[in-house]
Amino acid sequence: GAVVSQHPSWVICKSGTSVKIECRSLDFQATTMFWYRQFPKQSLMLMATSNEGSKATYEQGVEKDKFLINHASLTLSTLTVTSAHPEDSSFYICSARDLYEGFSYEQYFGPGTRLTVT
Amino acid sequence: QKEVEQDPGPLSVPEGAIVSLNCTYSNSAFQYFMWYRQYSRKGPELLMYTYSSGNKEDGRFTAQVDKSSKYISLFIRDSQPSDSATYLCAMSLTTSGTYKYIFGTGTRLKVLA
Fold first, then answer.
1. Of A46, A105, A109, Cβ closest to residue B49
2. Is B46 on the interface with A (CB under 8 A)?
3. SS3 (DSSP) at A96
């Protein structure tokens, strides 16, 4: 089956620093990747949709200058949390859609990255 | 009104019970209906998907969709402690090149041994 990896799985950083999270589709090509944030005991909140070779589309209320998304290839998207603050501490999950997937239902999820900002 | 409504639980059941998880939705344009299982601190994994009204069975899991009532359900038979997780419903549609994918809030399920 399709596998999506994320790196790192867990990161602790100091307030004011930037953190980059990578999302890779390992055995398929993904034109579209999604970035979600999940707070404890809450559902996934879509932050942005990342399309290969073009600018990401951010959901309302998500600061594009704070959460920088780059989708440089069909297998890699990165999320950079700039000038992180404690309120950015959360579980960040990416997902990817297969380039050749003919249906609109399937997203393959990564294992998530837990960010703790101290 | 949220597009997708799901009772957050928690729901506790004894081992072997039949579990019923439900979601309602308001957008009749949704085309695909999915159920995901998410263990603590892990990414969601797809359990079931369907695109038509009716039932779809896979092992101990049955997904049910009633488009006329805008209601979907996931039934788990002979529930096991390993089924303890958060179950998220999700719905998607594609229209005019726009792809939309909405998750429910998730229902936390605990199956007691």
1. A105
2. yes
3. strand
Residue spans of beta strands (DSSP E) within A8-112: 10-13, 19-25, 30-38, 45-51, 57-58, 67-73, 76-81, 90-98, 108-109
By the CB < 8 Å criterion, does B101 face chain A?
yes
> Can you point out the beta strands (E) in B1-113?
4-6, 11-14, 19-25, 32-38, 45-50, 54-58, 61-66, 71-76, 85-95, 98-103, 107-112
Give the pLDDT score at B93: 83
Q: Does A111 touch chain B (CB under 8 A)?
A: yes
Q: How many residues does chain B have?
A: 113
Best probe of the B interface among A26, A32, A44, by most B CBs < 10 A, is A44
* Average confidence score pLDDT of chain B: 92
- A39-83 pLDDT, tens digit per residue, is 887 888 899 998 888 889 999 999 999 999 998 888 999 999 999
DSSP structure class, residue A28: S
Distances in whole angstroms, Cα of residue A71 to Cα of each of A2, B35, B77, B100: 18, 27, 41, 19
Locus of tokens 């995901």: B36
Query: What was the pLDDT predicted at B95?
Result: 72
For residue A24, the one-letter residue type is R
Say which residue the tokens 């399920």 belong to: B109
CB A44 within 8 A of CB B90: no
